[in-house]
C-alpha cells in the first residue's frame, strides 16, 4: 500500500470516527454549537496539516475548506450575525470561492470562472429578493441573464466558440420575454406596428426611383413583329 493511499485512509477513517463519536454524544447529551465549531475547526486544520506534508493531495484542501466553511456558518448563526434568508447566499458564495481561487492558481483554466460566476450571481439574488428589489418576474429574468452572460464572455474571449451564442441567445430571449409585462404587450405591439408603418413611408420618400427610358420606334416594331 503506497503512502497516498495510507494517508487517504487515515483522513477518511479519522473523520468518520470523530463525527461518529459526536453523533453518539449528541444522542445522549445536548452538545452546544460551539463544541461543533471547535471540532470542525480543529478537524479542518488537522486535514490541512496532512495536506501540508504532501501538497500533491489537492482533495485534502477541499475537505479542510468545507469543514472550516461549515464552522463559519454555525458561528454566524449562533451569534445571530446571519439571518436565515441569507444562509443560502453564504453557502453559494462558499462553494464559489474555491473555483475562483483555483482559477487564480492557474489562470489558464478560465473555465472555472463559469461555475464561480453562476454561484455568485444566484447568491447575490437572495439578498436582492429580501430587500424587495427583485420580484417574481424580475427574479426569473435575473437568473436567465446571469446564466447567459458567461456564454457571451466565452464567445467574446474567442470568437471560434460560436456555439456559446446558442445558449446565450436563447436564455437572453427568454429573459427579455419575462421582462415584458402582460399589460405592456398591447402597447409594444401597437408601437411595433406604428414603427413598421413609419419605416415603410420613409422608405417611399428616400428610395431612388428607377428611370425607365422610352423604347425607340425600332424596338417597338421589333416587339410587335415578335408578338405576331
Characterise this structure.
- With about 230 residues, the protein is mainly α.
- Among the domains are: about 80 residues; about 70 residues.
- The chain has 9 helices and no strands.
- The protein is elongated.
- The mean pLDDT is about 75.
**Helix-strand makeup class:** mainly alpha
Number of helices: 9
User: How many β-strand stretches?
Assistant: 0
Q: Main beta sheet: strand number and arrangement?
A: none
Quick check: average pLDDT?
76
Beta-strand fraction estimate:
under 5%
In short:
This protein is mostly helical. The chain is 78% helix and 0% strand.
Topology:
Blueprint: H1 3-28, H2 33-53, H3 59-78, H4 87-105, H5 113-130, H6 136-157, H7 165-179, H8 182-206, H9 217-227
Descriptive keywords:
single chain, mainly alpha, 0% strand, 9 helices
Amino acid at each position: 500500500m503506497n503512502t497516498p493511499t495510507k494517508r487517504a485512509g487515515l483522513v477518511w477513517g479519522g473523520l468518520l470516527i470523530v463525527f461518529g463519536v459526536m453523533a453518539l454524544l449528541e444522542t445522549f447529551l445536548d452538545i452546544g454549537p460551539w463544541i461543533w465549531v471547535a471540532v470542525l475547526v480543529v478537524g479542518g486544520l488537522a486535514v490541512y496539516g496532512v495536506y501540508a506534508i504532501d501538497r500533491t493531495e489537492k482533495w485534502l484542501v477541499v475537505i479542510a475548506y468545507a469543514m472550516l466553511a461549515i464552522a463559519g456558518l454555525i458561528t454566524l448563526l449562533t451569534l445571530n450575525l446571519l439571518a436565515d434568508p441569507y444562509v443560502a447566499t453564504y453557502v453559494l458564495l462558499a462553494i464559489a470561492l474555491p473555483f475562483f481561487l483555483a482559477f487564480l492558481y492557474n489562470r489558464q483554466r478560465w473555465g472555472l470562472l463559469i461555475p464561480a460566476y453562476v454561484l455568485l450571481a444566484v447568491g447575490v439574488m437572495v439578498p436582492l429578493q429580501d430587500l424587495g428589489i427583485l420580484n417574481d418576474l424580475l427574479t426569473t429574468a435575473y437568473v436567465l441573464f446571469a446564466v447567459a452572460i458567461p456564454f457571451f464572455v466565452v464567445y467574446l474571449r474567442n470568437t471560434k466558440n460560436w456555439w456559446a451564442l446558442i445558449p446565450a441567445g436563447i436564455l437572453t430571449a427568454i429573459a427579455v420575454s419575462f421582462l415584458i409585462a402582460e399589460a405592456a404587450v398591447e402597447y409594444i405591439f401597437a408601437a411595433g406596428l406604428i414603427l413598421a408603418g413609419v419605416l415603410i413611408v420613409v422608405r417611399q420618400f428616400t428610395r431612388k426611383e428607377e428611370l425607365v427610358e422610352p423604347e425607340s420606334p425600332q424596338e417597338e416594331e421589333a416587339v410587335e413583329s415578335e408578338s405576331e
